């Protein structure tokens, strides 16, 4: 099977919302009047971002999910995406599973594939996603203000638990491992929550490289500091609820674990009811885990307010 046959069989579908989809040198996108275009690009490399044993349908889902998560952090509505795919060879069962998982999530969010490229090479998936957001309404990293609450969506740390189980550093019961592995391989982008938080949240970022590291982007952009409740953050690890794991590993997973693709965001205390309502409207759990401070830097404390001595980092693609 040649390159163009591969594209036609597994990735070409009629455009329904975009003026022009796959098949020309460029796709055409037309945001609605009064909207700004939100654009994000992410690359997934085998062995760096995913294991070779991952189910191809889950990988197709994740490849798009990580990009939709960026749109969610901006409060944008998905429109379309492009796919650049390097493959070691033409593996038709793999392509069928990958495209099925990819398009299932794309259809769920009304996001069309409108172009891209394929070539032979080490397995590498690069997606660029396009969304729209009302002019001036995008959620940014730079809007946090002193006194704001810090919130997180969904659950944290489960993907890191699965990774540690794969590495053999800890043992999980079979059902717990399956749950954690699902969170690692098939994350749920919080697109509906991001849109519901427009006008309520003061800043937002998606948690891809670890809570501490990604919250740090908000602090740097907003020129503020923060106090984070480690126990509140650890309390949202779903898979570990009954595993009897130690506090240190749970904190590491919740605060330093990557691949969560949840949103960490800030909002004024007066907006707590509005944040809770946004969570209900989007069927997404939201948990308050800290506050924004005037003093620079990040302070991590336990539920009683005592400093936590353990050090936390974040994922670095070049380490």
From TrEMBL:
- Residues binding Mg(2+) 4 are 25, 40, 70
| Top-level EC class as recorded in UniProt | transferase
Q: Which amino acid positions bind Mg(2+) 2, per UniProt?
A: 42, 70
Which domain of life does the protein's organism represent? Bacteria
Q: Where does Mg(2+) 5 bind?
A: 209
**Membrane spanning stretches:** none
Annotated ATP binding lies at: 116-117, 141, 208
Give me the residues that bind Mg(2+) 3, please. 25, 70, 206
Q: What is its EC number?
A: 2.7.4.16
Protein name per UniProt: Thiamine-monophosphate kinase
Organism equals Variovorax beijingensis
């Amino acid at each position: 099977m040649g390159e163009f046959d591969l594209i036609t069989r597994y990735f070409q579908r009629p455009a329904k919302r975009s003026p022009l989809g796959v098949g020309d040198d460029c796709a055409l996108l037309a945001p609605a009047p009064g909207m700004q275009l939100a654009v994000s690009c992410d690359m997934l490399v085998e062995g760096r971002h995913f294991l070779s044993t991952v189910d191809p349908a889950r990988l197709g889902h994740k490849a798009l999910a990580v990009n939709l998560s960026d749109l969610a952090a901006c409060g944008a509505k998905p429109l379309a995406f492009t796919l650049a795919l390097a493959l070691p060879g033409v593996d038709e069962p793999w392509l069928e599973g990958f495209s099925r998982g990819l398009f299932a999530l794309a259809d769920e969010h009304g996001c069309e594939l409108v172009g891209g490229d394929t070539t032979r090479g080490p397995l590498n998936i690069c997606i660029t996603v396009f969304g729209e957001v009302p002019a001036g309404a995008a959620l940014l990293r730079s809007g946090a203000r002193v006194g704001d609450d810090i919130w997180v969506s969904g659950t944290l740390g489960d993907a890191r638990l699965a990774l540690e189980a794969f590495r053999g550093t800890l043992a999980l019961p079979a059902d717990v491992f399956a749950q954690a592995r699902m969170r690692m391989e098939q994350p749920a982008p919080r697109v509906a929550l991001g849109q519901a938080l427009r006008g309520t949240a003061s800043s937002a970022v998606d948690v891809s490289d670890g809570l501490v590291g990604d919250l740090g982007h908000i602090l740097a952009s907003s020129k503020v500091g923060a106090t984070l409740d480690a126990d509140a953050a650890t309390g949202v690890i779903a898979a570990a609820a009954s595993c009897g794991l130690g506090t240190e590993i749970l904190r590491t997973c919740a605060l330093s674990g990557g691949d969560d693709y949840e949103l960490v965001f800030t909002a004024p205390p007066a907006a707590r009811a509005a944040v809770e309502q946004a969570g209900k409207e989007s069927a997404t759990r939201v948990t308050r885990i800290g506050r924004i401070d005037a003093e620079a830097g990040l302070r991590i404390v336990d539920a009683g307010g005592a400093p936590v001595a353990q050090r936390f980092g974040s994922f670095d693609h070049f380490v």
